[in-house]
Amino acid sequence: MKKNVKLNGQLRLYVRWPLYLTLLLIGMNLWIYVISHDAGIIMAVFVAIYAVVAGILYVSNQPVLYTELVSFATHYGQIQKNLLKELVLPYALLTEEGKIIWMNRQFMKVTGKGPDYSRSISTVFPELSRKLLPTGEQDHTSIEFSYGEADYRADMKLIHMDEDMKNSHLTSTVEFEGSLIALYLFDVTEINHYIRENQEQRMAAGLVYIDNYDEALEDVEEVRTSLLVALIERKINKYFNAYDGIVRKLEKDRFFVVMKEKALTQIRENKFDLLQDIKTVNIGNELPITLSISIGSCGASYMDCMEYARSAMDLALARGGDQAVVKTKEQITYYGGKTQQVEKNTRVKARVKAQALREIIAAKDKVVVMGHRLTDADSFGAAVGIYRASKALNKKAYIVVNEVTTSVRPMLEEFNAANSPETGIVINSGQAREVVDRNTAVVVVDTDRPSYTECEEILSMTPTVVVFDHHRRGNESISQAVLSYIEPNASSACEMVAEILQYFADNVRLKSGEADCMYGGIVIDTNNFMTKTGVRTFEAAAFLRRCGADVTRVRKMFRDDMTEYKARAESVRHAEVYKGFALSICPGKGLESPTIVGAQAANELLNIIGVRASIVLTEYNGRIYVSARSIDEVNVQVIMEKIGGGGHLNVAGAQLQCSIEEAMKTIRRTLDDMLKEGELE
């Protein structure tokens, strides 16, 4: 004990003060000796006696003092141990590896373990794995988990024993290495119950729109019109009233809904079955009724929830309707959207967008048009149409194309021939950054995702951005667009631009080569007018034919290279049918445009009996390009959205950053999950 324990701090000073006082007395004795020799001698005798007695007492009482200190520390530690033992808070001590070395009675009561239990804490609470234990870098951790019928928060604190011994004010010891972990369990069952109850009572705001109100009523006899409207309203009211919600009619085809979060949770579990139930309303209407539902949830205020609902409704309508969108601050969730949107015959929207585009371009000096990365026929054809509209207003116009694929090269040559001797129309991203300034209009075609564009940087270099896209809008979109025309029921971006050109200006005259490019875009995206083709598609094609588009020239432009034809055939030959889905990998080696070949192979696989949809993977430039196609049985867009892509019900795609094997596993896992949840039925 003498070797390991020494008095420290104020206690050492208190014990040694008689010895220090001896020095003071010696000094006083010398001073008296100077004054009186005899008195100094007498004082010296008394000082010597005092020093001897003080020394004897110091030496003889030190063991007793050590004994008393140890006895006090023992009793003090025992008291502390008893207090911890009887503490109402569950408490335990663990080794650095998580092994239990001691626990109080409350901890034993919670876990049902005895005092001799010395296994790892993870055997009691699997959530407290070793990687979650505090370490030297992070000496405090906290985790919530459920055990039995209760919820607990475990706070774990790393205790460094050497530091505690060094910081003692009474004693000092030799170095001690090692640490313990103090584990506290806090019962948070009640507070979690009240938190959940509070969350369930919060308001969720919603909007319900009837997508095809006017179109459905056109086919109904006048005497049945009011009955059809009443049945629709009754379905909507009855549905939300069953969940303790309130429905109020805003307009003839629009409703406002208020409900609790608890009700929203139940509706989400039921996959918004109102979307399917409303289609059963039929009293002579040829078109089934479809709804668009948007819900704003988890907002900081009622106004926030309402803003979320409005934003979600914009998404639902932009994606084609017949679906529900739930929006919170952090997340957007989609339900439904499995049917094809009914094509609207009215062109009012196209005419309004055309006039708005004319005003925007007229106010700018330059126009820069770009599509998505790896520009395809539809993207380039639409860009050509916007270019011609800009030239009709005598504006400088440029088309951004970074990489010319085999499918686009014949179109580019045709376009350049039609506009010779003018050069410098088609530029790359570097040149686009030099061209764009504050007085430039940037028009994005065939995509609404900033990350998918040929040059994302130029979107922030000008305040004037216009978007024309025929894909369903996803979570990522170009938010700063001053004009956004999203038409999911259009077959292609070329169809949309062809309609715009008809209302843009009287002096817009497409050259035959430009008309070929736009016509070719429609041909490719509709798979020779077999996919997603409506009345307006043929009207757009007729307009382009009147402008000089030649079917023979277009067909020659898209003839296949022998290598690409063999690669496509190889993809079909090695295809595998997995639960009704044709899965294949397109060999991209040696191909100039493997993604185009992959898309063509996906189209070919649809001709096989029993194939509900086809998915083809193509590796190109370090990415995996996914092409998904279907006829009418499966909505491939929702499949692609699960892996970060998007598109249409029948034509969709995605891009993945992984190996081809991992991408195929992801596709299979996604299909399994969606089939299990009934999302592809």
Q: What is the architecture of the largest domain at the second tier of CATH?
A: Alpha-Beta Complex
Portion of residues in beta strands equals: 15-25%
Q: What is the number of strand segments?
A: 25
Q: How many H/I helices? A: 22
- Strand order, sheet with most strands: 9-10-8-11-12-13
Distance between the amino and carboxyl termini? 80 Å
Radius of gyration computed on alpha carbons: 40 Å
Query: Total domains, how many?
Result: 5
Going by helix content, strand content and strand pairing, the class is alpha/beta
Residue windows where pLDDT falls under 50 for at least 5 positions: 168-176
Q: Helix fraction?
A: 40-55%
The CATH homologous superfamily of the largest domain corresponds to: inorganic pyrophosphatase (n-terminal core)
Q: What is the CATH class name of the largest domain?
A: Alpha Beta
Mean pLDDT: 83
Summarize the main sheet. 6 strands, mixed
**Shape by Cα distribution:** elongated
CATH fold call of the largest domain: inorganic pyrophosphatase (n-terminal core)
What does this structure look like?
The protein is of the alpha/beta class and 681 residues long. It has five domains: 6-85; 89-195, PAS domain (Beta-Lactamase), CATH 3.30.450.20; 203-336, Reverse transcriptase/Diguanylate cyclase domain (Alpha-Beta Plaits, 2-Layer Sandwich); 348-557, inorganic pyrophosphatase (n-terminal core) (Alpha-Beta Complex); 563-677, Diaminopimelate Epimerase, Chain A, domain 1 (Roll). Helix content is 44%, strand content 20%. It has a six-stranded mixed β-sheet with strand order 9-10-8-11-12-13. Helix 13 links the parallel strand 15 (396-400) and strand 16 (426-427). The chain starts with 5 loop residues before the first strand and ends with a helix.
